[in-house]
Write a structure and sequence with these properties.
6 helices; three-stranded antiparallel beta sheet; 3 strands; mainly alpha; globular
């Protein structure tokens, strides 16, 4: 399976945020992997991701680990989870993981930027991440829509 490091460790080692192309690649790979996991059953889907739970290998593989409860994951936690709601369906679990993936990627583009420096994202990527981080779950985009956006971006870039 190879050696994996967390996304947080990668950013810490490089000391700078992810570039837009890296965010698109990570978003595409994460979404594909999450869709595969989702199809195996809602019980297999982690509803929470964070920079400490996204695992990357030197060979380009991606995996996820469950967020440990001792991790500081509050800013990656979907609002409905913070309100005590559990994922009762596959669709609900997907919406939760979409939120935490979006917040994780925003964290990656904002990593160690000075507070007064805005993040540098295309309108296209910023809109997609905003739709992933929608506070109201029914208005939040789903994994298939994220994947479709990634494919469109890849074809046009």
């Amino acid at each position: 399976m190879g050696t994996f490091v967390t996304l947080a460790e990668v950013l810490e080692a490089r000391g700078s945020p992810l570039e837009e192309d890296e965010v698109w690649c990570l978003l595409f790979a994460s979404t594909e992997a999450l869709l595969v996991i989702s199809k195996t059953g809602p019980g297999n889907m982690c509803t929470m991701l964070s920079p400490g739970s996204v695992l990357l290998s030197a060979s380009g593989n991606l995996a996820f680990k469950n967020c440990a409860r001792h991790e500081d994951v509050a800013s990656f936690t979907p609002p409905e989870v913070q309100q005590g709601h559990a994922a009762s369906t596959r669709a609900a679990a997907e919406k939760m993981v979409v939120y935490s993936l979006g917040m994780t990627l925003y964290w990656c583009v904002d990593y160690q930027l000075p507070q007064n420096q805005p993040i540098q994202l295309s309108t296209e990527l910023d809109r997609l991440l905003l739709s992933m981080c929608e506070d109201v779950a029914v208005r939040r985009t789903d994994l298939l829509s994220v994947l479709e956006n990634c494919k469109i971006h890849h074809k046009t870039s």
